[in-house]
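# nightly structure sweep
# worker-07 picked up a monomer target from the shared queue
# config: single-sequence mode, recycle default, output format = structure tokens
# input follows
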Amino acid sequence: MGLLKHSGFWKPRVLTCSALHNQSIDTVWETICEYRDAAIERGALESKRASQNLSWMRQLVNELLLRSLRTHPGVREALPAIEKRVQNAEVTPLAAALEVIERARS
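# output follows
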């Protein structure tokens, strides 16, 4: 996820606070704002968002392709038998995957 990685523009600080005793909450908030300002100034937030968007798009493509395969009549009908052949080591996973793709194409 990369939450703890930084591009070198920020050195994380160790702060203590207590919401229960209302101690140093302002300091923590100021530090959060400083980080955000530094990240915006250096384009880190924009870069991170672009990277996240690309990752989300790829994940969605994978999910949509799988859904499309699973709902394809030819694949849906043949999939249990193909999976059984993989489990029984009668066919390699790659060969089975290629068979599923080929059924989806026809």
